[in-house]
Amino acid sequence: MAERVCDYPRPPALVPSSEHIRVEALGRQLCDTSRSLRVLETFHPPTYYLPPEAMALELLLPAEGRSFCEWKGIARYFDVVVDAGLASERRLRRAVWSYPEPTAVFAELAGWFAVYPGLMDGCWIDGEQVVPQPGGFYGGWISSKVIGPFKGDPLHPELI
């Protein structure tokens, strides 16, 4: 059954998921897990947070800069890098983020990772490739299980 994102709460909810999640970046598998946390916020498709033990941590290098979320706290960013330091190096800048010390309400997110689907080769939920949430700032995963309109969609400027 599909979820309507207009029915998601504000402030956001944190919901465990056993959906099979797979992420590929720069021709490599970045994550494969059946354990994730979904952040559900009004008018946003879910953002999936992935456990560190399921991530190919060797592909992540800390990136410059931080950002602040009124609900989750201060995020730090990571580049996805293949062949680091070599002439063949490939890099996706600030493609992954994490909350090392989230707010108390989102404490479960500590050390888990989220990705921008639009920067990845692909992100899949139970075998279905997701569509990235519109807008470069958002990390939502649009699948057939969610119904919009979605924040960031230029067809709905009232939500941008």
Describe this structure in words.
With 160 residues, the protein is mainly beta. It has one domain: Metal Binding Protein, Guanine Nucleotide Exchange Factor, Chain A (Beta Complex), CATH 2.170.150. Helix content is 0%, strand content 44%. The protein has no helices and 15 strands. The strands form five sheets. A four-stranded antiparallel β-sheet has the order 4-3-11-12, with no helix packed on it. A four-stranded antiparallel β-sheet has the order 7-8-9-10, with no helix packed on it. A hairpin with a 3-residue loop joins β7 and β8. The two termini are 26 Å apart.
Query: CATH homologous superfamily name?
Result: Domain of unknown function (DUF427)
Name the structural class: mainly beta
The biggest beta sheet is recorded as:
4 strands, antiparallel
Element-by-element helix/strand order: EEEEEEEEEEEEEEE
Helix content: under 10%
Beta fraction: 35-45%
Average pLDDT number: 94
Provide the CATH topology.
Answer: Metal Binding Protein, Guanine Nucleotide Exchange Factor, Chain A
Number of domains: 1
Number of strand elements: 15
The CATH C-level class name: Mainly Beta
> If classified by CATH, what would the architecture be?
Beta Complex
